[in-house]
């Protein structure tokens, strides 16, 4: 590693440990972020080895403390850094399907913004042949080593998170708990009668967002931090996710919705695959038990809409409150069908029709 790269790594290591120390010293108070540290990061002149994938992996691993927590339930450990004034984002992923075989996935790219929504992604699978070892220490705990550096990755064990009895209807199956990278927890639910999915807000834990009612109806609640929009169910004591900010989806940031944080570690057997095939029978024989296609993409579960303004959310309330909707079709009011015009808001639909793939490579 050259001196410039070593200096870059040294700065980032110091920054990480300074933040950890600051958090430890003031554990009873919120962590403070300053413009000073932001300015120093974006004006730092040392460059990361962006053209050398393994050197980049070494930089990321060496910048981490000896142990880290992976919160999102699709097992992505996200990071970002600034290089010559540009923010880069990336992740290390321990996929539930092959991490026990000693594999991981590493990605990084110039971060997306509203001004620039396309960027080249460096994406690579790494394993023993590359000098990278992935060692399972115990359930949901792995040690990743490369060169002289080893880091223990503890995956988020929320296997005890289950919805209370009053959160599920008689036709619904609970598929598993989700911890989104936004720090919001959900219950993934499948309605086997209507063949639709819902993300239900997990309210068994202290909320990590503040929810305020929309201007037109108190049935619609919107997160002040995340922008996640929920509908207060008329029938059950729960909140159903109906919308995610379209700006966040375009930027592919931490607030783009839970479609990419499914409960992989907690799905038993083939129940997710069977539910997907019930929704789209043409996928029989084309997806694995977690909904992956052979090309690495994954079936997209996003019954919610991408909204720009509160007005885009009001059709959900009109549908749910309408006397014209047959009682047995009530929950289809919380499944959105995307219009052909990308700029038009999605509308509730009695049938779940959506794109069957979502790209998994280099997510965030």
Would you spell out the secondary-structure blueprint of this structure?
Layout: H1 3-25, H2 35-43, H3 53-63, E1 67-70, E2 76-83, E3 86-93, E4 104-110, E5 121-126, E6 132-138, E7 141-146, E8 149-155, E9 172-179, E10 185-191, E11 196-201, E12 211-213, E13 220-223, E14 229-232, E15 239-245, H4 246-251, H5 271-279, E16 305-307, H6 314-321, E17 336-337, E18 347-348
Structural overview:
- With 364 residues, the chain is of the alpha+beta class.
- The chain folds into two domains: 3-155, no CATH class; 165-348, no CATH class.
- It has helices spanning 3-25, 35-43, 53-63, 246-251, 271-279, 314-321; strands at 67-70, 76-83, 86-93, 104-110, 121-126, 132-138, 141-146, 149-155, 172-179, 185-191, 196-201, 211-213, 220-223, 229-232, 239-245, 305-307, 336-337, 347-348.
- Strands 12-13-14-15-16 form a five-stranded mixed sheet. The protein has a four-stranded mixed sheet with strand order 1-8-7-6, covered by helices on one side. A four-stranded antiparallel sheet has the order 2-3-4-5, covered by helices on one side.
- Helix 1 (3-25) runs parallel beside helix 3.
- Mean pLDDT is 88; it is low at 1-11, 13-24 and 350-356.
């Amino acid at each position: 590693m050259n001196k410039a790269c070593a200096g870059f790594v040294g700065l980032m290591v110091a920054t990480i440990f300074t933040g950890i120390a600051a958090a430890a010293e003031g554990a009873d108070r919120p962590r403070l972020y300053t413009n000073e540290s932001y300015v120093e990061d974006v004006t730092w002149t040392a460059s990361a080895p962006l053209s050398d994938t393994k050197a980049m992996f070494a930089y990321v691993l060496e910048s981490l403390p000896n142990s880290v927590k992976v919160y999102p339930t699709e097992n992505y450990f996200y990071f970002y850094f600034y290089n010559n004034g540009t923010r880069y984002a990336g992740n290390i992923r321990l996929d539930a399907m092959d991490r026990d075989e000693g594999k991981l996935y590493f990605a990084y790219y110039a971060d997306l913004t509203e001004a620039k929504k396309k960027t080249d992604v460096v994406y690579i699978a790494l394993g023993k042949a590359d000098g990278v070892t992935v060692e399972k220490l115990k359930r949901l705990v792995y040690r990743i080593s490369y060169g002289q550096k080893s880091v223990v990755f503890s995956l988020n064990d929320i296997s005890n998170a289950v919805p209370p009895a009053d959160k599920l209807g008689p036709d619904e199956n609970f598929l598993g708990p989700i911890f989104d990278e936004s720090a919001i927890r959900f219950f993934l639910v499948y309605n086997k009668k209507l063949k639709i999915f819902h993300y239900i807000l997990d309210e068994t834990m202290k909320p990590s967002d503040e929810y305020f009612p929309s201007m037109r109806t108190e049935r619609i609640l919107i997160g002040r931090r995340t922008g996640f929009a929920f509908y207060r169910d008329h029938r059950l004591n729960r909140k159903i996710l109906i919308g995610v900010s379209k700006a966040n989806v375009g930027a592919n940031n931490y607030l783009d919705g839970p479609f990419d944080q499914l409960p992989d570690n907690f799905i038993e057997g083939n129940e997710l695959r069977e539910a997907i095939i019930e929704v789209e029978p043409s996928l029989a024989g084309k997806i694995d038990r977690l909904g992956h296609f052979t090309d690495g993409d994954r079936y997209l579960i996003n019954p919610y809409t991408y909204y720009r303004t509160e007005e885009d959310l009001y059709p959900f309330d009109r549908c749910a409150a309408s006397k014209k909707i047959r009682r047995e079709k009530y929950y289809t009011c919380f499944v959105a069908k995307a219009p052909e015009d990308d700029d038009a808001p999605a509308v509730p639909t009695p049938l779940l029709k959506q794109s069957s793939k979502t790209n998994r490579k280099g997510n965030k």
